[in-house]
Amino acid sequence: MGIIVGGVVIDKNYQSDIEGLERILGKKLVYEGDTIFKKASVNEQEADNCEVYFSDRGTLVLTSIERASILHKAIGQEVLSFVIDEESMAFGLNYTRNNFLVRKVLEVEGDIVESKGELLDFEEGEEDKLELIYHVIEELLDEYIWDIEPQEKCISYRLVSLEVDDQDLEMASYVINTVEFDDLEEVSALKDDKQIINTKEEITKVKRSKESILKKVIKGIKLRG
Questions:
Q1: Nearest to residue 4, comparing CAs of 71, 80, 62, 47?
Q2: 117: left (phi over 0), alpha (psi -120 to 50) or beta
Q3: Cα 215 → chain centroid
Q4: Cα(27)–Cα(176) distance, rounded to whole angstroms?
């Protein structure tokens, strides 16, 4: 069996700023318990759960394929959402810097289904999109994902609706994850158009099936909050 994993990586350790991480994910994190990286990385996550690993420099959120398929962003941070499915040979990434989409790639069975943004420096000499994903993860986490010790602590969270009151709405509009991939405009333009995300809409829980990984990615793109 090949690796099947989806996640979000941020170039900042959010262990002491869980509220900031919640705003990026667009969900409230409810503590469920501790686990280890070996277990967290081999089980595909349900839509309403995630496992979080904190490195010295960054944060790795192992989450469902649907949630990992959508764009996440934050002011002043680099954020990568990625999907790796070696069984379906599907690899996708969405890479943002300081609220702007820098690069999006979706490859299925060797074919580039979608590509946006300028090539990253690493791509100049490497066409393998799986290696590209691993490279960006390492850049942001400051650690190669499969070099993480199997017994390293991860924290399990349940994802629930994030309540956004009027005072927090402006901040939430900057960082909530569901702005479409082709939206490269400044966030101020979004505010002017009042394109604020409905953060109360829940994801449907999905068990893994034989459906095409591309369908899951498309479902993720359409996901709201």
A1: 62
A2: left
A3: 17
A4: 9
Q: Which residues pair with 34 in a beta bridge?
A: 155
Beta strands in the chain (DSSP E): 4-10, 27-36, 49-54, 59-63, 78-85, 90-97, 100-108, 111-117, 153-161
The whole-model pTM stands at 0.76
Confidence band for 184, pLDDT divided at 50, 70 and 90: very low
Helix, strand or coil, per DSSP, at residue 21 = helix
* Cα–Cα distance measured from residue 204 to residue 196, given in angstroms and rounded to the nearest whole number: 21
Count of alpha carbons within 13 angstroms of residue 154, beta-carbon side: 24
Q: Where does residue 110 fall: left (phi above 0), alpha (psi -120 to 50 degrees), or beta otherwise?
A: left
For residue 218, report the phi and psi dihedrals to the nearest 5 degrees.
Answer: -65, -40
Average pLDDT over residues 106-121: 93
Secondary structure letter of residue 148 according to DSSP: S
pLDDT by residue (tens digit) across 72-86? Answer: 999 999 999 999 999
CA–CA dist 216, 171 (Å, integer):
29
7-40: per-residue pLDDT in tens?
Answer: 999 999 999 999 999 999 999 999 999 999 999 9
Per DSSP, the three-state class of 106 is: strand
